[in-house]
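User: Some background: our group keeps a shared notebook of sequences we're curious about, and every so often someone picks one and asks for a predicted structure to add to the entry. Today it's my turn. The entry only has the sequence so far, pasted here. Could you supply the structure so I can complete it?
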Amino acid sequence: MENLETYIAFDLEFNTVDGVSHIIQVSAIKLNQHEEVDQFDSFVYSDVPLQSFINGLTGITAYKIAKAPKLESVLVDFKSFDGDTPLIGYNALKSDLEEQYALDVFDEAFDRRASDLNGIVNLKLTSVADFFGIKGHGHNSLEDARMTAQIYEKFLELDENAKLLEQQEEV
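Assistant: Of course. Here's the predicted structure to add to the notebook entry:
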């Protein structure tokens, strides 16, 4: 797995109505030298009625959506925040940000399910976070972005430990 020194972990929340997903929150945290240095968090305006299920799941209210900037404006602000920094996400390849997308942490978790994640119940973001003792509130895109970064950092730590063990075995 590539060790990114500087990267942005991002997450999106959606309101799906009649099979169409509408972005309602865009969040990200920027890490430099593996330390959080900045964050981006914005709700996104939608004239599509907010599903009560989504409100209960995310805590996002119709009022927050009604007062939020439109998606085009949020994406311009996000692009200004992220520049050309590599992006990581959790099961997020479906986004429009693929050209900067460096790593899907879900794919990494899937590959590690029989080794580093042996015994895990499932690969949901919150389950992997719990497995590593990482606390966070799922389905809040800022918290999800932060958990994604923390899981990535745990995977880097596991990789470093494996290299050290390999070196010791060679001696």
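Suggested note for the entry: The helical segments are 52-58, 62-66, 71-82, 105-112, 125-131, 141-170. The two ends are 25 Å apart (CA to CA).
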